[in-house]
Amino acid sequence: MAIRSTSTATTTTRSVDGDMTVEEFKEWLMKFDTDRDGRISREELKRAIRSIRGRFSGWKSRRGIRYADSDGSGFIDEGEMDNLVEFAQKSLGLRIVVSN
Prior knowledge:
- With 100 residues, the chain is α+β, with helices and mostly antiparallel strands.
- The protein has 4 helices and 4 strands.
- It has helices at 22-30, 42-51, 57-68, 81-91; strands at 3-7, 12-16, 20-21, 96-97.
- A hairpin with a 4-residue loop joins strand 1 and strand 2.
- Helix 2 (42-51) crosses helix 3 and helix 3 (57-68) crosses helix 4.
- The radius of gyration is 13 Å and the shape is globular.
């Protein structure tokens, strides 16, 4: 998977390492769905951005929700996930590829 965890005695960091598939991105992102409602909230997206050492995670999470949330609910659900993939590629610099 493209997002890799490494641990040391003091910290755990995650880095983006190469390409990931859309499915890998979705699986990774759903790990941040802390309330298990099947949707990604702004706070959950913020945590995901922070986990890859993204800067300005609060601002980027607001932009991500606005970009991807086509029904205006304030959450990203399964039907809007492709919009979030597009946002992650354009605004977060993640390399997400379609698997064959």
